[in-house]
Specification:
- Helix content is 31%, strand content 16%.
- With 369 residues, it is α/β, with parallel strands linked by helices.
- Helix 1 packs parallel to helix 10 and helix 5 runs parallel beside helix 6.
- It starts with 5 loop residues before the first strand and ends in a 5-residue tail after the last helix.
Length: 369
């Protein structure tokens, strides 16, 4: 039976998205069981991988997006955008970051088409193995971005993150101490900022305080955050509930009390954002100013580091893709009763055969069929 599954890798079409979901070395892993891989021409160039590298790894290069989308499985980095919706069909499986809780139109179109939609961000083993690599990169990038946005070259206050002799460092507050929040904290502390971590998990806060990641900690309580946020030069939102819309932690009133030129980064914006004043931005137009505060809410932060991000994501995706291909061969991915608990791709199923099978997605859209 092996070899009957065709896997398509389209060129990413989101604004300035240069990542690719499979590197040539990972293509070799996917084709080893006999599966056929179609890569859209030029899809890997932004990450430093040319078409010849994919041919050498066993992929076929095709020139039309429609050829890629005709595959049994389409695997890609970012969620399909509007111009790709017409490719959906009932015998197609999409494997990608989907963030459906913040994407009602995409969710409705997947349901209407009967497409099986499997999301990287909800796939579980003991952790979230396909979300963690990009969360790590987004968190590392957040420290760099925050330092740049604070400068007077843009609309920032002109504060140097690490301060100077006789001048205190910038104060950073990070909401959510998962992978992204932890990496942002480490980066900012490496630049000598004063960093306070906020989370509901007091045990996690203790760990981060003891291992030197944080200068200070704060339990996530609304009134306790008022003074903390008002005094922050940098506020980073990284709160996560897998599959669900991000919890709204920071209010517009709290942002309004921040000093002019302070910086907000919402790393949860893919899932709707955890800061009330956050709205999605692009790499082409990454910031806006509200209440005098610079907001950076790019929905694909790791996309600006495509070589590193592609290599990290591809290594995590490839073995799960091979497992998913086996389930497609077996016909189980289009069965709503079985798809949510398939081995190696457990809980990745979001929408199957016109049904929302992930409880977080169903809770987000109670009025969808």
């Amino acid at each position: 039976m092996a070899g009957r599954i065709t896997i398509g890798v389209p060129r990413e079409r989101k604004d300035r998205e240069r990542r690719i979901v499979l590197t040539p070395s990972s293509v070799s892993l996917v084709t080893a069981p006999g599966h056929r891989v179609l890569v859209e021409a030029g899809a890997g160039l932004g990450a430093g991988f040319d078409d010849d590298a994919y041919r050498a790894a066993g992929a076929e290069i095709v020139t039309e997006a429609a050829e890629v989308w005709a595959a049994d499985i389409v695997v890609k980095v970012k969620e399909p955008i509007t111009e790709e919706y017409h490719h959906f069909r009932s015998d197609l499986t999409v494997f990608s970051y989907l963030h459906l809780a913040a994407e009602p139109e995409l969710t409705a179109r997947l349901i209407a088409a009967g497409t099986a939609a499997f999301a990287f961000e909800t796939l579980r083993d003991t952790t979230l193995p396909l979300l963690a690599p990009m969360s790590e990169i987004a968190g590392r990038a957040a420290a760099i971005i925050a330092a740049g946005q604070l400068s007077a070259a843009g609309d920032g206050s002109g504060t140097l993150v690490g301060g100077a002799a006789g001048v205190p460092p910038a104060r950073a507050v990070i909401i959510g101490m998962g992978v992204a929040g932890t990496m942002a904290a480490r980066g900012l502390r490496g630049l000598d900022a004063h960093v306070t971590g906020v989370d509901l998990d007091l045990g996690l806060l203790l760990e981060r305080r003891l291992d030197g990641t944080l200068d200070a900690t704060q339990a996530s309580e609304p009134h306790a955050l008022d003074a903390l946020i008002a005094d922050a030069d940098v506020l980073i939102g990284a709160a996560l509930v897998p599959g669900a819309r991000a919890p709204r932690i920071v209010t517009a009133a709290q942002v309004a009390r921040m000093r002019p030129g302070s910086v907000v980064l919402d790393l949860a914006i893919d899932q709707g954002g955890c800061i009330a004043t956050a709205r999605p931005t692009t790499l082409s137009e990454p910031t806006y100013v509200e209440h005098g505060v610079v907001h950076y809410c790019v929905t694909n932060v790791p996309g600006q580091f495509p070589r590193t991000a592609s290599a990290a994501l591809s290594a995590a995706v490839a073995p799960r893709l091979v497992a998913l291909a086996g389930h497609v061969e077996a016909g189980t991915v289009h069965d709503p009763q079985r798809a949510f608990a398939l081995p190696r791709v457990s809980e990745a199923a979001n929408v199957v055969a016109g049904e929302m099978v992930h409880p977080a997605i169903a809770a987000a859209f109670p009025d969808l069929p």
